[in-house]
Amino acid sequence: MQAAPAQFDGAGALTRASMTPIFLQKKMRERAMELKFSKVERKGPITIVTLSRPEVYNALHTDAHFELQKVFDDFSADPEQWIAVVTGSGDKAFCAGNDLKWQAAGGKRGWDKGGFAGLTSRFDCDKPIIAAVNGVAMGGGFEIALACDLIIAAENATFALPEPRVGLAALAGGLHRLPRQIGLKRAMGMILTARHVSAREGFELGFVNEVVPQGEALNAALRWAETISKNSPMSIRASKQAIQRGLGVSLEQAIAEQRDYPAVQAMAASQDYIEGPKAFSEKRPPKWVGK
């Protein structure tokens, strides 16, 4: 059992945390964070986050946003967690977006720096995040999915940015991500009409990676996650960061600067960078350590 490094308080006494094994410290942190609007499960290096307000189709309000901010902060900071899968509770909805009834009743509205669900403004996470869309993904719910790196959708999934129908606009990233992902004219056709799009049409438009039978979205997303986890997590993070940063500049600049990106430099300095070629030459599966 590996103990945490000794730490001292101002009086020179050992702190309680310093005397607690690392894995117990982690469990204590998880218990300290009582989840009311979401559920978190870990399967090896994969974190499964379930939006859990089924009584309102997993629509989110302020308290849920701040809870999810902490959930994804913890995922981003945990070196043992390499991939996240986001889904919704129940079999009807992924997320119906902003809880309009809560807002209409005078409930405060807002979220932390990570944006809607702690995800839509989270630009510093280089770990892959997969949306397992198991039903309705409306407004902010669709914006959560668009903020993910992959979208796996059940046949009963429905996507839309219907904010104009209630006097709002999709300002949690939808107005900017959708045109970048499917092209201007197609995005305009969805946004200006506020129309609903099926999973099959989403696949044809290009924002859905795979359509699966109803009830199979999470299993399919986990299959994708497990396939990704066979690759070096350092290489995956470097690839995601290079893609994201490269899209914001010219092709020439992206290629010229990519080796200076932090995740690319971390990959080149990692144990995985040595392990990959070594395992290939020895004709064995690599043993990734993620550092």
TrEMBL record:
One of its GO terms (biological process) is fatty acid beta-oxidation. Coiled coil: none annotated. Signal peptide: none annotated. The keyword Kinase does not apply. Keywords: Lyase. SUPFAM superfamilies: ClpP/crotonase. One of its GO terms (molecular function) is lyase activity. PANTHER family: ENOYL-COA HYDRATASE, MITOCHONDRIAL, ENOYL-COA HYDRATASE-RELATED. Belongs to the enoyl-CoA hydratase/isomerase family. This is Short chain enoyl-CoA hydratase. It comes from Bradyrhizobium sacchari.
